[in-house]
Amino acid sequence: MRQEELIAERYELALARIREIPDESICGETYREYFTRMAQFVVMADQALTIVESGRLFQMTMEELEEHNRLLYEDILPEHYEKSYANPDYAVDRLGKSIGQMLSFLYAELRSMIPSAYEKDRTAMTIRMELLLEAYQSFVCAAQEEREPDAEDLRQILYWYVSDYYEAEFEEKTEVLLNTDRDFARRIIMESDLSDLRYLYYFGEYITENELGTAAHLNSLPEEKIKKMADTYTEGYRIGFEVTGKDISIKETVAIRYFLGFERVIRQAVENFDQIGLQSSFCRAGTNIFQGRSVNKNGYSGANPNKQYDYDHKEDWALFLDGALAGRRTTAVRNVLERHKELAALYGGPAVVESFGEEPFVPVTKSTACRLSEKQQKLSVENAGQISAVQNEYIKGEEHSFTIIAFPVPQIGERYREIFDDVVRINTLDYMLYRDIQQTIIDELDKGVTVLVKGKGENCTDMKVQLHRLEDPGAQTNFENCVADVNIPVGEVFTSPRLTGTEGILHVTRVFLSGLEYRDLRITFRDGFATDYSCGNFSSGEENRRYIKDNVLFHHERLPLGEFAIGTNTTAYAVARKYGIEDKLPILIAEKTGPHFALGDTCYSHEEEVKSFNPDGKEIVAKENEVSVLRDTDVSKAYFQCHTDITIPYDELGELSVLTASGEKRVIIQNGQFVLPGCGELNAPLLEVQPV
């Protein structure tokens, strides 16, 4: 029997059995409602598959598509989430903590059947239906034996599901990433009538007024503006290879990540990439345990139905992560990449379009949500390092690049169209002007050994950053002159500082990192490492520390300062102030609006040996620190697989200066204004919004 026939048979058998569940009462009254609702959801997912396979999806009216989309996602929407089994609070209240957590995870896993239905992936749907049936049968057996269900039995079912299917699921994700023949999203983008907004519902993602409004706005723009936006994006990608001396001609694939609604720009970008010899792949953002659920989407995605749902389930690995499963993950990644090593060698890296403008998300930390234990946190960190090392063997950091650009969505406010135009202007600022001004700043910085950064007003920042010593100042530099290539828009100079002697307090009164808000964030550094941290989000100091450790330190006990930078895009800062959207800027733009510090890896992670030069011809030599240099002796201790930028806005900045070896202080920024000669043009936008 062929594989397709076997899957079809398993699918029909599982579906037939699941259809019977609502009419049964043999699993115990406590759990009957849960399994009934799960069965109803599976039947709804099957109906979605039927609509797609029959072609009816493409015949539905806009109103029918909207209603169908709402029905698929309504159970996790905020207005319904309080009584959804996807909400661990509700599941634990109804089913008890241990079993409630596991069955809440099971429902979250079943929900990944929605995109599978749209992609007609019966295999993915089948294994999840069979998982539901295996769990259900364990409850039936317990009821028949007149005993309570065994939580460990259920955990074992979930454990072996994850262990057994991890390699197959990683293979599927890798195939979509590296093989452009897997063209589900590309066909929709390139073949749909983009003036007919029904196409947005063909992806299987949640669609809101943001996606519809973005697509409608782009449809109203002239072709030359669309081309300008796409050209900026794709040229940034190409130039990223050029400035780092990497050979783009040996690459054949680029992975496009974006939010739905931007298809008109993405279509032009695909054509641009085709012209430079790169085929575009489209990998959907994670929706299951294998790909990871996160507030910060990594792949193409529609609207997020409920960020709290993703936040609640981000550590579901706590249910089953142990040493054996961690080893299984590492082995699976190696096996898959070895089978696809030819395609992996041709992969050039991601090209990302971010969106911003939604209401800021302030998560609720729930005691009912799964949380990694201290032992699991350590294991998770070690495992991530092992997997990263394996991936770098096949997708070499020194050979691939990336680019990121961002645009607002309609939810940003009534002045959306004006903001959109200003962001396009920010993304296309004068390359030469910023290159020359930033070179002036770099020349001054390269005269020093230490940078001092002090806050003003309520900002208590007092940082001392140590720079590398230049052996040949005439040919070497510490700072990269970052213009509009991999990080669009233009506007920063950055370095990897020395850790020894780097110390002080970094403080921001309010900041958003990876979609999460932090109030009164304070981090203390000693010899370049974050040794203490706090924020004012919660009433409990312990809860605040856990929030930072989970979401900024990513479970590491401590992290080094991987980057120090000075953002120079005062135009972006002024635009944010003009419209009052500072809290909605993505880090991509926010990091250009003041000096910033990054916790984690350097900007040159896995690329330390690649020679790169500034436009003035000087080689950038500050590419590593006392931690990353350990890659030559113990790579597991050299990298952290994270990099989080924290920006001090100009209006909270008292002074930024550099100390020379002789002790002379040379001031670059004073009271939020650039005072270094040759940088005066940067002050004009600042004076518009914060006059002296």
Describe this structure in words.
The protein is of the alpha+beta class and 692 residues long. The chain folds into 3 domains: 147 residues, no CATH class; 186 residues, no CATH class; 261 residues, no CATH class. The chain is built from 23 helices and 19 strands. The mean pLDDT is 93.
Main attributes of the structure:
692 residues, eight-stranded antiparallel beta sheet, alpha+beta, globular, five-stranded antiparallel beta sheet, 23 helices
Strand count, sense and barrel status of the largest sheet are:
8 strands, antiparallel
Count of runs of 4 or more consecutive helical residues:
23
Amino-to-carboxy terminus distance = 78 Å
Radius of gyration: 26 Å
Strand proportion, as a percent range, falls in 15-25%
Helix/strand-derived class?
Answer: alpha+beta
User: What is the overall shape?
Assistant: globular
Q: Fraction of residues in helices?
A: 40-55%
Domain count, please report it: 3
Q: How many β-strand runs?
A: 19
**How are the strands of the biggest sheet laid out side by side?**
12-11-10-6-5-17-18-19
Uncertain regions: pLDDT < 50 for 5+ in a row? Answer: none
On the 0 to 100 scale, the average pLDDT is: 93
The assembly state of the depicted protein chains is single chain
Brief rundown of the structure:
The protein has 692 residues and is of the alpha+beta class. It is built from 23 helices and 19 strands. It is globular, with a radius of gyration of 26 Å.
Which SSEs are present, and which pair or pack?
Elements: H1 3-20, H2 29-54, H3 62-73, H4 78-81, H5 88-95, H6 97-110, H7 113-118, H8 122-144, H9 151-178, H10 184-191, H11 209-220, H12 223-243, E1 253-257, H13 263-275, E2 279-281, H14 307-312, H15 323-339, H16 341-345, E3 347-356, H17 374-394, E4 403-408, H18 416-427, H19 431-445, E5 448-455, E6 462-466, E7 476-477, E8 480-482, E9 492-495, E10 498-513, E11 516-526, E12 529-534, H20 541-551, E13 561-567, H21 570-579, H22 587-590, E14 595-600, E15 619-620, E16 643-647, E17 653-660, E18 665-670, E19 673-674, H23 683-689
Parallel strand pairs: 1-2, 1-3, 3-4, 7-15
Antiparallel strand pairs: 5-6, 5-17, 6-10, 8-9, 9-13, 10-11, 11-12, 13-14, 14-16, 17-18, 18-19
